[in-house]
Design a protein that fits this description.
Blueprint lengths: L1 E9 L2 E7 L4 E5 L6 H11 L19 E8 L4 H9 L8 E8 L5 E5 L2 E3 L1 H11 E4 L13 H7 L3 H27 L3 H21 L5 H13 L1 H16 L9 H18 L4 H27 L4 H21 L3 H18 L3 H45 L7 E13 L2 E10 L7 E2 H4 L2 H16 L12 E4 L8 H14 L4 E5 L3 H4 L4 E9 L4 E8 L1 H12 L4 H26 L1
Parallel strand pairs: 3-13, 3-14, 8-12, 12-13
Antiparallel strand pairs: 1-2, 1-4, 4-5, 5-6, 6-7, 9-10, 10-11, 14-15
Helix pairs in contact: 2-3, 5-13, 6-12, 7-11, 8-10, 9-10, 11-12, 13-15, 15-16, 18-19
Length: 579
C-alpha cells in the first residue's frame, strides 16, 4: 500500500506531504483545486513521462521537482519479486521511490536508495498500481492483459489446467529443440560433423595432459640453463665434499676434524657433551645434502635433442590453446563438449525416429491440454460476461455490452493457443469493438471497477497475483443519484481486498471513504498553494454539504444522514462477515 506521498515544486504545489491509509481513500475538492496535480505526481512516481511545461511553479522553473513515495510491500509479492530480480534490497517490506526532475530534462530516480532507469521504474509501477483515468496506466487497454484477467476469474481447477498446459508446452519445446538440432539442414549437419571430427583428431594427436605444460616449461628452463646449473651444482658438491685433488677439503672433512677434536674434549670434560652431540647430529643432514647434490649433478640433462623435443611439445600445446581454449584444461573441456556433440550428431536413424515420436507424443499432449484450457476459458468468458454486464448496468452504463473475443494463435504459447480480447459497447445497438477504440476514460474506469469487483469475488483474485493499489479518476463522469451510490458501494467492497484511491465530486461516493482527504487551493495576493487535509466528523459533514451545492442547513443534515447510513452499512457488513 501507498503510505505517504511527498511533492516539492510541482505546478501549484510548493511543499506537500500526504499520508494514506488502507481501504478506500477518497480525495475531494473544488474544481481546479489541484486534485489532478496529485494524480500527475503519482503517475510520475510510477514512471510516466514528465510534461516539462508543468514542472516547477510559476517563476520557479529553475528549481527541481521532487516526488517521493513510501510503500508497504507486505501485500505486493509481484513487486517484491521484481525488486529482488533487479538486485534492489528490500527490508521489512518497505519501498521508497524518489524521482527528481529538472526543467532542462534531467531525470534522477532512486529506488530504495539505488539509482534506477525510467524503464525499471515503469515496470515496478505496473506491479504496484492500476491507475485508471490516465491512459498510460490502463491495463485494460493492453490486449495481452485480457487473457490474464479472464484466467484470474477461474477457480483452482482452471489454474491447475493452465499450469499443466505450461508444463506440457515446456517439455514439448525442449524435445523439439533437441530434434531440430539433430535433424537440421543435412549439409550443415554434415559440415559441422566434419569440422568437429577434425578438431577431435587434432586434439587427440597431441593428447594434452592436465598439468603437462607447467612441467615442460620447468624442464625447458633447466635445459636452457644447464651449463649454469652444472657449474653451480659442481661448486656445491666441492664445497661439501672437497675437490678431486684433495687439496681443498670440503665442509664434511672439516666437520669430521671438528668432531674428532670435540670427542677428545668430551673424554675429559663432560660439560661439552651437549654441543659435541650437536656437531655429531649436524653431520648426517650434510651428508644427505652432499649425496643429493652429487646425484643432481650426475643426472643433469644438457641434451640439445631433449630441448628440441620439449620446445616442439610446448609449441603443439600452444597451438591447441590458440585454437580451442585459453588453457590446456579449457582445451580438454572443449574436447569433451564436442565429443558429446559428435555423438549426438552421429545418432542413428532409429534413435532420431524415437526422438521424433516423442516430440509428436508431447505435441499431442500439449494440444489436448491447450484444447481443454480453451474450452475452460470459453466457459469462463460466458460467466465473466454475465457478471461484468450486471456490474456495468448498476454503474450508469445500462446498455453496456461486453464480450471476450477468441482467436486461435498461429504459433501456440505456454499459455495456450488462444488470443483473447475484450470487446465493448456502451450504447444499445452499437457494435462491439475493441476497448481502446470505443471506451472513454470514465467508461474504462467503471469497466475496471466492474472487473475488479467480479474478480475479488472469485478464487482467481488470489493474493499472489494481485496488484495492490487501484486509483480511479473520472469514474463519476456522467453519473449521479442511485448509480453514484452503487459505485460508492462497489468501491467500498473492493477496498476490502485492495488499497483504493478515488477522486470524486459526488457525495454518494465520498461518504463511503475509510479516509477522506480534501484538496484545497489557497490563493493570496502574490501566490497560490495547494494543501491536502484529512477530514473527520463535522469537517466531513461540511465537505459533503459543499459537494451537494452549498452548506445549507438542509444539506448539512443530509450529509450527516449520508455518513450515518454509510457507517451503519459498514457495521452490518462487518457483523455479517464475522458471523
Amino acid at each position: 500500500m501507498l503510505q505517504e506521498l511527498a511533492i516539492s515544486n510541482l505546478a501549484l504545489i510548493d511543499q506537500l506531504e500526504v499520508s494514506c491509509r488502507s481501504g478506500l481513500n477518497v480525495l475531494t475538492g473544488e474544481t481546479g483545486a489541484g486534485k489532478s496535480i496529485l494524480m500527475q505526481a503519482l503517475a510520475l512516481l510510477l514512471g510516466d513521462r514528465a510534461d516539462m511545461d508543468k514542472l516547477g511553479r510559476d517563476g520557479e522553473k529553475s528549481r527541481k521537482t521532487l516526488v517521493e513515495g513510501s510503500f508497504d510491500l507486505a501485500q505486493a509479492p509481484l513487486a517484491h519479486h521484481f525488486l529482488t530480480e533487479q538486485d534492489i534490497p528490500v527490508e521489512d517490506h518497505q519501498l521508497l521511490i524518489s524521482r527528481e526532475l529538472s526543467a532542462d530534462g534531467r531525470n534522477k530516480i532512486r529506488i530504495n536508495g539505488r539509482l534506477a532507469t525510467v524503464g525499471v521504474l515503469r515496470e515496478l509501477g505496473r506491479l504496484l498500481v492500476d491507475l485508471h483515468g490516465q491512459h498510460d496506466h490502463q491495463r485494460l487497454l493492453q490486449i495481452e492483459t485480457h487473457g490474464e484477467f479472464l484466467d484470474a476469474s477461474g477457480a483452482a481447477p482452471h489454474r491447475e489446467q493452465l499450469a499443466a498446459t505450461r508444463t506440457a508446452f515446456s517439455r514439448w519445446k525442449e524435445a523439439q529443440t533437441q530434434l531440430d538440432q539433430l535433424t537440421g539442414n543435412a549439409q550443415q549437419r554434415a559440415q559441422r560433423l566434419d569440422m568437429l571430427s577434425f578438431q577431435i583428431q587434432d586434439i587427440e594427436e597431441v593428447a594434452p595432459q592436465t598439468g603437462e605444460e607447467n612441467t615442460l616449461a620447468e624442464e625447458r628452463e633447466r635445459l636452457l640453463n644447464s651449463e649454469k646449473l652444472r657449474d653451480a651444482a659442481g661448486r656445491c658438491v666441492a664445497a661439501l665434499q672437497g675437490d678431486d685433488t684433495g687439496n681443498e677439503p670440503g665442509i664434511l672433512a672439516l666437520l669430521g676434524l671438528a668432531i674428532k677434536a670435540a670427542d677428545e674434549l668430551a673424554a675429559h670434560d663432560s660439560r661439552v657433551e651437549q654441543w659435541v652431540n650437536e656437531l655429531q647430529n649436524a653431520r648426517y643432514p650434510l651428508e644427505d645434502a652432499a649425496a643429493e647434490a652429487a646425484g643432481y649433478l650426475d643426472n643433469l640433462d644438457a641434451s640439445p635433442q631433449r630441448l628440441e623435443e620439449v620446445e616442439a611439445r610446448l609449441h603443439d600445446l600452444g597451438r591447441l590453446k590458440r585454437k580451442y581454449g585459453e588453457s590446456i584444461d579449457a582445451v580438454l573441456q572443449y574436447y569433451e563438449d564436442i565429443s558429446k556433440e559428435v555423438a549426438e550428431l552421429g545418432m542413428g536413424d532409429e534413435e532420431i525416429e524415437a526422438l521424433r515420436a516423442r516430440c509428436d507424443k508431447l505435441s499431442r499432449e500439449y494440444e489436448l491440454l491447450a484444447g481443454k484450457l480453451s474450452r475452460s476459458r470459453r466457459q469462463l468468458s460466458q460467466q465473466l460476461t454475465r457478471e461484468v454486464i450486471a456490474q456495468l448496468q448498476s454503474l450508469a452504463i445500462p446498455g453496456a455490452q461486453f464480450e471476450v473475443d477468441f482467436k486461435r494463435l498461429e504459433h501456440p504459447t505456454a499459455d495456450g493457443a488462444d488470443a483473447m480480447e475484450f470487446l465493448f459497447s456502451a450504447n444499445p445497438g452499437m457494435p462491439l469493438r475493441p476497448l481502446s477504440k470505443v471506451a472513454s476514460g470514465g467508461e474504462i474506469s467503471r469497466l475496471m471497477l466492474a472487473l475488479r469487483t467480479v474478480l475479488a469475488r472469485h478464487d482467481g483474485g488470489q493474493e499472489s497475483q494481485r496488484i495492490p493499489i487501484l486509483v480511479f479518476d473520472e469514474i463519476d463522469t456522467g453519473i449521479g443519484g442511485v448509480t453514484a451510490e452503487a459505485v460508492g458501494e462497489k468501491m467500498k467492497e473492493l477496498a476490502k481486498s485492495f488499497q483504493v484511491f478515488c477522486i470524486t465530486h459526488l457525495p454518494q461516493i465520498a461518504r463511503h471513504a475509510d479516509y477522506h482527504l480534501q484538496v484545497v487551493k489557497d490563493s493570496k495576493a502574490n501566490s497560490t498553494h495547494v494543501q491536502v487535509q484529512p477530514l473527520e466528523d463535522e469537517a466531513r459533514v461540511q465537505e459533503l454539504a459543499r459537494m451537494m451545492g452549498h452548506e445549507s442547513d438542509a444539506n448539512l443534515e443530509h450529509a450527516r444522514q449520508l455518513l450515518q447510513d454509510a457507517q451503519k452499512t459498514s457495521r452490518k457488513r462487518v457483523v455479517k462477515k464475522t458471523s
